[in-house]
Amino acid sequence: MKLWARTWPGAPALALILAAALALVLAAGASSTLAAEQGPGMDAHGQLQNPVLQTRFERITKELRCLVCQNESIADSNVDLAADLRRQVREMLVAGKTDEAIFKYMTDRYGEFVRFAPPLTAKTALIWGAPFIVLLLGSFIIVRVVRQRSRMPIEE
Amino acid sequence: MWKFLLPFAAFVALVVLFAVGLNPNRDIHALPSPLIGKPAPEFALKDVLDPARTVSNASYRGQVYVLNVWATWCVPCRQEQEALLAISRRHVVPIIGLNYRDDHDKAKLWLEQLGNPYTAVAFDGDGRTAIDWGVYGAPETYLVDTHGRVIFKFISPMTEEVWEKEFLPRITAARSGA
How confident is the model at residue A32 (pLDDT cuts 50, 70, 90)? Predict the structure, then answer.
């Protein structure tokens, strides 16, 4: 391997391409094992037959937290509970439920924590507002520091 | 003055934050249940011990009862089994078991070998009833009052100490309030 790398300067590039291809194959394999679930209204690849519903399904399940693993979405998690919740989302989509109805179903049972992006309410105002507060605070400090410095005599 | 006070205040704030956040007794996986104060979700499921029978929590209406979520794959459930048996022998309230995402035969064998602390054991093989109750692990134990409302949820293996401290006072209060 080492000899080969020395004799041919293109080897590192080829190795990189091979590694990338391997990563792609592995990723595809991982996602297909996750997606191969069966149920009403689904095709052999574990996808909803209706592509509009499948798109909504993918978006909604990315938005819902897996409560066992907490920092993974139910779309990404292999845990049994995540599979149950995916089945629930799928069934509700096939039954013609709206996105709001599905999110409400989940928060009624698991609380706001089940959503990665909590809705803006009095309770969550601080979470949503904090970045802006920090931004304002930061710019205020920068402005003050810059003004102070500009008043200082330039030392040589 | 401010130059010293501000960093000091920030320091105190951090100490408080860490004292709360890094407290080893705090279970970071324990989530508040949105079900507290709400009507207990109804279920009518097959009985693990006698599939011909149906276990329904509707038949416990008007009583304070406990719902304990367990499974044979759940290691801490084995740990709490003895406490549950001891608690059931006191006959304070009915304890309904919810056998969560389990194998029916294994569940039956478990109860026959380790003892059965439950008044009735409902078989929730596909986990649908568990979703209604907001179950996200096992064991979980719920307390329902005489009005059929969930008043308490405990996430961890049950112990006799927890029963004395967390459940008994709430059961007494629920009964006197009814």
Answer: very low
Q: Shortest Cα distance from B89 to chain A (angstroms)?
A: 32
Condensed to tens digits (0 to 9), the pLDDT of residues B80-113 reads 999 999 999 999 999 999 999 999 999 999 999 9
How many angstroms away from the CA of B69 is the closest CA of chain A?
14
Angle between helices A99-110 and A51-63 (to 10 degrees): 30
Task: Respond yes or no on whether ipTM tops 0.90.
Answer: no
Candidate from B32, B126, B131 with C-beta closest to A109: B131
Backbone φ and ψ for A149, nearest 5 degrees, come out as -65, -40
- Say whether residue A74 is in contact with chain B using an 8 A CB cutoff: no
Task: Give B134's contacts in chain A (Cβ within 8 Å).
Answer: 109-111
